[in-house]
Amino acid sequence: MTADVAVGSLETPVGRLHVAVTDVGLVDVSWVGTRVALPAVDDPARTKPVLDKLAEYFRGERRQFDIEIDWRLTSGVQRDVLETLYSTVEFGDSVTYGELAVRSGDRVPARGIGSIMGANPVPIVVPCHRVVASDGLGGYSGGTGRDGLEVKQWLLIMEGALPPTLGWDPDRLVL
């Protein structure tokens, strides 16, 4: 891994997102600042393409990400599950934890899939918000800490995977 990460941020309807990009690709997306323990640098050549694509997504202009991802901070099984999610669950779709376990080769039980989703280093781009419980939304560790399920619900409504709720505002998180 490079000796540094380029960092940047973007204001979105679900809060300020922070990104970290190595020379390989996107390594971190977070609501709380970069979680990568490398020196942070300002390098718009690395961050601007990622931030632009995230902005397009939130404006409803992008349904798929073509961003290089730096998977080096993920383990083998975790990476396999996240890559399966990234490549098989499209915008507007959802999958249950159990279904993703099957798609990933049945090496991880549904509860384990939930843990992997909670540790996803690049949410939104690798759409862990599209993984739901068989009887409801399930959990979501995205957001600022207290609003995880509201963020998940907002993202699924914005993508058309859930019908809008009364009071839903596409310009900001108000559910």
UniProtKB/TrEMBL annotation:
Cofactor entry: Zn(2+)
UniProt signal peptide: none
Entry-linked Pfam families: DNA_binding_1, Methyltransf_1N
Keyword Transcription: no
Catalytic reaction annotation: a 6-O-methyl-2'-deoxyguanosine in DNA + L-cysteinyl-[protein] = S-methyl-L-cysteinyl-[protein] + a 2'-deoxyguanosine in DNA; a 4-O-methyl-thymidine in DNA + L-cysteinyl-[protein] = a thymidine in DNA + S-methyl-L-cysteinyl-[protein]
Function (record text): Involved in the cellular defense against the biological effects of O6-methylguanine (O6-MeG) and O4-methylthymine (O4-MeT) in DNA. Repairs the methylated nucleobase in DNA by stoichiometrically transferring the methyl group to a cysteine residue in the enzyme. This is a suicide reaction: the enzyme is irreversibly inactivated.
Entries under PANTHER family matching the protein: METHYLATED-DNA--PROTEIN-CYSTEINE METHYLTRANSFERASE (PTHR46460:SF1)
Similarity comment text for this entry: Belongs to the MGMT family.
Protein name, UniProt field: Methylated-DNA--protein-cysteine methyltransferase
Organism: Kibdelosporangium philippinense
